[in-house]
Amino acid sequence: MKRSAPPLGAPLDDRATNIVVSLLERFWLSRVVRADYADERATRTPHDPMALVLTRREIVARDKDVVALTFSAPDGDVLPGWQPGGHLDLHLPSGRRRQYSLCGDPQDADRYRIAVRKIPAGGGGSLEMHDLRVGDTVTVRGPRNGFPFIPYERALYIAGGIGITPILPMVRAAQRLGADWHFVYCGRSAETIPFLDEIASWDPTRVTIRLDDEHGVPTADDLLGQAPAGGAVYVCGPPPMIETVRLNFDRSGAAALHFERFSAPPVRDGTPFEIELARTGDVLDVAADESVLDALVRHRPETAYSCRQGFCGTCRVAVLAGTPDHRENRLTAEERETSMLTCVSRSLTSRLVLDL
Ligand code: FES
């Protein structure tokens, strides 16, 4: 079942129209970040947990370490709608919770597609995802969107490796809308980057593929050389790539930057401290360049987390003593008095006592 295509806004073709872009952006952000999506035909909402069945499993990278998974409702019902940049929260059979960007077609009303890179040394979520087989059921919440697509007339899309997942539907939407777009895709080698077959069907004059084993690590000019004057840049990939784009964006000539991290942001101005786990008495060191969550996972690999960026709330713990250095925007002032998000927040005191 197909949803109808989103409307194309008026042409946005010079810096003066950035006001329009800004208003448009505010409209989209207020709509998508807060409310997620509804589809009048869907009987489910993004707020309801949904049991979805895996209906298709495809290997989409030559090294076989990226799998694309398609989920549908067991009754084939219409699912809540989404826009490019949206993601799902998946609750895995083990109890792990992970977020994955949607990389299918938003107009497919009865299925969601995500893609997962296998990370053997990760927290186990990717291995569990790779072990799923057609017919297995997972619990899903969403879709939600913290990286919304805005129909700029001119945009550069940059992806690093599995960071292509939110970018794929954005580029498809830009094509569909007749926008002036360019796509820069970076990765370690042609073996490792997913969806090459699909990208091969795109206009090759609008696509630049940069592989580390052929061209070296991309420079700021490699990444931003095609940034459109007065247009937008979207980037998703590893932290060093995003930092390179962020630090050099001002001289690119583009007017708007949107980025999404796939992993924890680097710790800034970190100092070491200790955490005490009140229920066991264990005391763990938190190094200057690691998070409380890192220390917890090292000690207890089953520790629950998801986004590692301070917005999902999965890693929240109660603080019994000490003063956290809150580095997120999710918790209320009241919540901050008694708890913290261990993935990004640190300590203002030499020790925090956690209710763990
Ligand atoms: S893991 Fe998502 S807020 Fe910490």
UniProtKB/TrEMBL annotation:
The lineage of its organism: Bacteria, Bacillati, Actinomycetota, Actinomycetes, Mycobacteriales. The keyword Oxidoreductase applies. This is Ferredoxin. InterPro entries: 2Fe-2S_ferredoxin-like_sf (IPR036010), 2Fe-2S_ferredoxin-type (IPR001041), 2Fe2S_fd_BS (IPR006058), Beta-grasp_dom_sf (IPR012675), Cbr1-like_FAD-bd_dom (IPR008333), FAD-bd_FR_type (IPR017927), FNR_nucleotide-bd (IPR039261), MRET (IPR050415). Residues 47-150 form the FAD-binding FR-type domain. Pfam families: FAD_binding_6, Fer2, NAD_binding_1. GO terms for molecular function: 2 iron, 2 sulfur cluster binding; metal ion binding; oxidoreductase activity. Keywords: 2Fe-2S, Flavoprotein, Iron, Iron-sulfur, Metal-binding, Oxidoreductase. It comes from Mycobacterium adipatum.
